[in-house]
Q: What sequence folds into this?
């Protein structure tokens, strides 16, 4: 079914890390409406440019930490789960569970 339609995520995207998470979960793209509007209201075009640069830097860091060289390299395997329940809901591989993070 994934090939037949595009998946856009539009809720709670506040950082480049959020974008990487959503892409790893299978989204084709994310919306950044609220962040965009805040940046635009605060500093106009320069604010939006700064926001996009920040998102790009955050995405590069997250991708480097997962070993992904391109956006298409992101997958469920890129994610680390901090809760067994979350892993079950998102159908993440058991090997991605880190028990030490569950109580954090």
A:
């Amino acid at each position: 079914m994934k090939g037949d339609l595009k998946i856009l995520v539009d809720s709670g995207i506040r950082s480049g890390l959020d974008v990487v998470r959503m892409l790893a979960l299978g989204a084709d793209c994310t919306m950044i409406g609220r962040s965009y509007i805040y940046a635009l209201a605060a500093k106009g075009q320069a604010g939006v440019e700064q926001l996009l640069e920040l998102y790009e830097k955050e995405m590069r860091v997250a991708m480097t930490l997962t070993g992904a060289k391109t956006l298409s390299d992101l997958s469920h395997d890129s994610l680390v789960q901090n809760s067994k329940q979350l892993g079950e809901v998102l159908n993440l591989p058991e090997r991605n569970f880190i028990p030490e993070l569950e109580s954090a």
